[in-house]
Amino acid sequence: MKLVRGAWKVLVAVKDGLVLLAMLLFFGLLFAALAAKPNPAIKPGALLVALDGTVVEQPSEVDPMALLSGASVAREHRLRDVVQALDAARGDDRVKVVVLDLDRFVGGYPAVVAEVAAAVGRVRASGKPVLAYATGYTDSSYLLAANASEIWVNPMGGAMFTGPGGSQLYYKGLIDKLGVNAHVYRVGEFKSAVEPYTRADQSEPARAANKALYGAIFGQWRDAVAKARPKARVGDFVSQPERLVVAAGGDIANANLAGGLVDRLGDRVAFGKRVAEFDGVGLGDDKTPGSFKAIPLRNWIAANPVPQTGAAIGILTIAGEIVDGDSGTGTAGGDTVAKLLLKGLAEKDLKALVVRVDSPGGSALASEQMRQAILQAKEKGLPVVVSMGGLAASGGYWVSTPGDVVFAEPNTITGSIGIFGLIPTFENTLAKIGVTSDGVQTTPLTGQPDVLGGTNATFDTLVQATIENGYRRFVGLVSQSRKMTPERVNEIGQGRVWDGGTARQLGLVDRFGTLSDAVAEAARRADLDPGAVHAAYLEKEPNPLAKLAETLSAGNNDDRVGSASTDLVSRLAGERRALLAQALGDARRLVRGGAAMQARCLECAALGPVIPTQGDVRLLDLLLARLGL
Question: 4-23, pLDDT tens digit by residue?
Fold first, then answer.
């Protein structure tokens, strides 16, 4: 009988292996077929820029298993692809009109959204019509729409502006009730990332710093909207929206129309008919009301590759959280990024290096590992220019210190020069249920950090000294790079976050400019004509399954002329719920561990797009269920 059972197990294992092999073969052939598919021909029509999801510096890999499970996967659009697509549309006669579909646009960091808005403005300035549509506009989507020639909104929707800020979760009361002992090691008055674990409210230094930061960022948003659409009474809708809406009988869309925020009210059918009226567009192939001949963004990007001629300027992208070890795209693993750069220096004939940073930081160890790799480029005599994207804070600033010159945008989030560590222990939690711990130590560090019995004074002193040494090293790097005294760096450091405009005044940034400006500067420093170089991106290629998943997730969404709509109030409420889920997830990830020494700006997330992971959403649902909500 045992022999039969053994044989059966072998047969089952063989069957499972063959099924797995067949699946891999199927997906491999499918991917090969999709990859070999030639770029589709572009027929005249309306360029449909349907920004479902977010705009980011470097999209994260799509998890194939998440797609197979039916989970919703947030779409991420690469910033340079969107900007290149819009710029290419300006002088191409095949594009008769550009359509911005912003119904499911979640946003991006302020500098990222502003760069896309500027590209939209360039299309409008060229004389080509740009039409925007959404059921509900909030801050990010309206900045894009304000640069359009014609703004449409659904009569059942409208535009409302919240500005940055809002409530933040503080866990001190919960931690005390559970008996958790949060051991915090920090340097800096403004390193408020740890405050949720040590306080029940915001400290006054953190409040003052956040008010200044949020005020500067929102002021830049208001200025940009006013410049793009002078007739819009945005100030009234920011300061007293309830008065204007009540005066309009509760009709937000009509209040927007009267206030000059939008040009036309209409549903998608009416909007589609308007687009179809432009010469060379017309009805879509299916001839349904509201359809129009659309050029999908994905096809347009594929049909307009960036020329790869001239000398190569290396572009090293450091995007997302900085972590130890290897990582996929959208996260900056110390090993991965360092290897990519060292390989590029060895195999490519690079004339200069631009370090593109879009990161809130993370592991101090990984940040230093990447900095050391960048120094290898300098040892080879390559000019190194840093280009800060939407976010270059804490560890993101650490990796920027080797730059000969640093570019940023006025609304880049940067600074946060500080380090912290957090280790939770559960001796009091266990004591509540009658569980204690005991043992024998051979040295003062035996069993440390003891998450069951608590850390001891020796360990706490050692870690705090390490954190302080890391901060001194950080200050020293900035002092050497920015030619400031350590005392001055400490004065503007201590974990405080700055907007790019203020950072330039303080000397943390040299110039304002985009990635293209940084590439041109790198070319000049290499004694090259900026018009005779090309960008050579040193990026990790996504694995084939992830690339296939990305292709399948896009599916037919790129060429659809309609999308699921959400009313304005539900959209705003959804953003706050997503922020809560993300905050809970950040707390869980920080408490569970990672790098012991963190050069990370947690508070920076409040200024970016809110895309919680599926795990974060499940954690929030569990919490609400326990609360009976």
Answer: 566 556 666 666 656 555 55
The answer to whether residues 355 and 387 touch, using CB atoms and an 8 Å cutoff, is: yes
Mean pLDDT, to the nearest integer, of 233-241?
95
CA distance 361 to 416: 9
Beta-carbon contacts of 243 under 8 Å, excluding residues fewer than 6 positions away, are none
155 burial type by CB count under 10 A (0-12 exposed, 13-18 middle, 19+ buried): middle
* CA separation for the pair 112, 242 (Å, rounded): 30
pLDDT digits (tens, 9 = 90+) for 344-377: 999 999 999 999 999 999 999 999 999 999 999 9
Active-site residue flag, 394? yes
Q: Which of 96, 140, 141, 191 is catalytic?
A: 191
Residue range 21-70, pLDDT digits in tens: 555 555 555 444 444 455 668 999 999 999 999 999 999 877 665 555 55
Report residue 222 as tokens.
């208001």
**pLDDT of res. 20:** 55
Please give the full DSSP string across 58-75, using - where no structure is assigned: SPPPP-HHHHHTT-----
Which DSSP string do the residues of 104-166 spell out, in sequence order?
TEEE--HHHHHHHHHHHHHHHHTT--EEEEEEEE-HHHHHHHHTSSEEEEEEEEEE----S--
Residue type, 84: Q
Q: CA distances (Å), 355 to each of 62, 110, 508, 538, in order?
A: 25, 20, 16, 10
Q: Which residue has the tokens 């710029």?
A: 87
456 Cβ neighbours under 8 A, 6+ residues apart: 444, 448, 450
Mark 46-70 as b/e (b = at least 16 C-beta within 10 Å).
bbbbbbbbbbbbbbbbbbbeebeee
Query: Is the predicted pLDDT of residue 556 greater than 50, yes or no?
Result: no
Decide: helix, strand or coil at residue 495.
Answer: coil
Residue with tokens 């994207």: 389
For residue 449, cis peptide bond before it (omega within 30 degrees of 0): yes
Question: Which two three-digit tokens encode residue 609?
Answer: 């797009």
As given in the structure block, the two tokens for residue 34 are 């999709």
Indicate the average pLDDT of the chain: 87
Which class for 240: exposed (0-12), middle (13-18), buried (19 or more C-beta within 10 A)?
A: exposed
* Residue at 111: amino acid letter: A
Count of helices and strands (H, E) across the chain: 24, 23
Over residues 501-522, the mean pLDDT reads 98
- Contact residues for 462 (Cβ-Cβ < 8 A; gap 6+): 445
Confidence of residue 619 (pLDDT cuts 50, 70, 90): low
CA distance to 41, 169, 276, 303, 416, per residue, from 284 (Å): 16, 48, 8, 21, 51
555 contact partners, CB below 8 Å, separation of at least 6: none
Query: What integer pLDDT is reported at residue 605 of this predicted model?
Result: 79
Annotated catalytic residue within 192, 363, 394, 479: 394
Could you list the beta-strand ranges (E) of 188-299.
264-265, 294-296
Go through the chain and tell me how many residues it has.
629
Known active-site residue 191? yes
State how far the alpha carbon of 483 is from the alpha carbons of 74, 366, 487, in Å: 42, 24, 12
CA distance 51 to 44: 21
CB contact set of 434 (below 8 Å; sequence gap of 6+): none
pLDDT at position 153 is 98
Tell me the C-alpha distance between 599 and 494, whole Å: 11
- Least confident piece of the model among 189-203, 299-313, 468-482: 189-203
